[in-house]
Amino acid sequence: MQPKQIIIFDTTLRDGEQVPGCKLNEKDKIIIAKNLELLGVDVIEAGFPISSPGDFQSVKEISNHIDHTIICCLTRAKKQDIEIAAQALKYAKRPRIQTGIGTSESHIKHKFKSTEEKILNIAYESVKYAKQFVEDIEFYAEDAGRTDNLFLAKVCEKVIQAGATVINLPDTTGYCLPEAYGNKIHFLRENVPHIDHVTLSTHCHDDLGLATANAIEGIQKGARQVECTINGLGERAGNTPLEEIVMILKQKKALNCFTNINTKMLYPISQLVSQLTGMVVPPNKAIIGTNAFSHSSGIHQDGMIKNSETYEIINPHEVGYNNSSIVLTARSGRSALIYRYNQLGYALKTNQIDTIYPIFLKYADKKKAIYDEDLKEIIKRV
Ligand code: KIV
Ligand code: ZN
Predict the structure, then answer these.
(1) What is the distance in A from the centroid of ligand 2 to the CA of 214?
(2) Is the CB–ligand 1 distance for residue 221 below 6 Å?
(3) Are 28 and 158 members of one domain?
(4) Contact call for residues 379 and 356 (beta carbons, < 8 A)
(5) CATH of the domain at 166
(6) Distance (Å) of CA 295 to CA 123, 146, 375
(7) Cys-Cys link to 104, which of 146, 172, 188, 363 (CB 3.0-4.6 A)?
(8) Would you say residue 289 lies in a domain?
(9) Cα(190) to centroid of ligand 2, in Å?
(10) How many folded domains does the chain comprise?
(11) pTM score
(12) CB of 239 shorter than 6 A to ligand 1
């Protein structure tokens, strides 16, 4: 079977930038957008133009600076939002408008105080209206995760009739278990007559720590686009982290999928986004955290020194990380100590290590980690 391409839709500059405390200026956004293009993402969601004049201007400038990647921007299902979005995308070489509305019972009853019939109509009209400005229209059924599948199927068929090219199924509140999210996509593929006319997209939030698992399940059930952000930035607990999806698809050959991402840029772009947004990456973050390739316990270090595959399933160079590190702590064993002394140019004999090791442990019990200077000091003492 031919491998399937998964379209990577990056929303760092829209959903990612909505995070409290994360504010990017126009220049920062252009730098990030250019790097996203180099990274190889297929779609950049550049902003929500009606939300502020600054966001409008950023979408406009990003459209000007980006050559090949699709530039998308968000709107509510409102004419004015769509008109402003179309203006902001005027210079985009490949523009896309993402419009949509909440479809779950809770959104319909409490947020819109409306009815399913009216929501269906608004969904249809908004796509039809957006279609006057650009060809490529993505429709989002907000809170699709908690939307009744039969109603969701009706909404999908309606927006396909209106000309939608992509249907986004956000698990807005991070509510779904992977099986339920996957089943939803399967249900739509079975029950929406013209579902083959559109690309289905996952957009998962991480409130229960399931954003990546849900996106992967969505792909397995037929989604061909994944909405994600660098470092998993996004509302509340964040969105599906781009780096996780890309590396899972690269690692797990059984999924038979590929992306256009240059994985060697994953670590550098993660650092760039962290610096510009001021949002610190937790050290234990999968793929790009500073501890992702650090080994500190004696058993692991011994295995790593013998063969890195014993404790690493990804070569750090593959994600643009310099090297794995053997961190010396009070849990480290003799082989790690010999290894680190070797790196410093000391070839120690067994009897020398026997003398040094207990001294090293005393140091390590006092400090969190032992650095090169400490090792040199220990040698001097001995
Ligand atoms: O989480 C969500 O539902 C969204 C939509 C607006 C696409 O971000
Ligand atoms: Zn979202």
Answers:
(1) 14
(2) no
(3) yes
(4) yes
(5) 3.20.20.70
(6) 52, 41, 18
(7) 146
(8) no
(9) 25
(10) 2
(11) 0.95
(12) no
Angle at 65 between CA 32 and CA 272, to 5 degrees: 10
Residues near 176 by Cβ (< 8 Å), separated by ≥ 6?
Answer: 145, 184, 204, 210, 214
Q: Which residues make Cβ contacts (< 8 Å) with residue 356, sequence separation at least 6?
A: 337, 348, 378, 379, 382
State how far the Cα of 141 lies from the Cα of 111, in Å rounded to an integer.
14
Question: What are 140-188's pLDDT values in tens digits?
Answer: 999 999 999 999 999 999 999 999 999 999 999 999 999 999 999 999 9
User: Per-residue pLDDT tens for 305-333?
Assistant: 999 999 999 999 999 999 899 999 999 99
CA angle 321, 322, 323 (to 5 degrees): 105
Q: Which two tokens stand for residue 7?
A: 């379209």
DSSP 208-270: TS-HHHHHHHHHHTT--EEEEBGGG--STT-B-BHHHHHHHHHH-GGG-EE----GGGHHHHH
CB atoms within 10 A of CB 361: 15
Which of 242, 248, 250, 245 has its CA nearest to residue 273? 242
| 187 occurs within a structural domain | yes
Number of CB atoms found within 10 A of residue 256's CB = 11
Q: Is the dihedral of CA 363, 364, 368, 373 positive or negative?
A: positive
184 lines ligand 1 (CB under 6 A): no
Task: Indicate whether 23 pLDDT > 90.
Answer: no
Same domain, yes or no, for 113 and 194?
yes
The atom number, within ligand 1, closest to the CA of 205 reads 1
- 301/228 same-domain check: no
Domain limit, last residue, from 219, 250, 277: 277
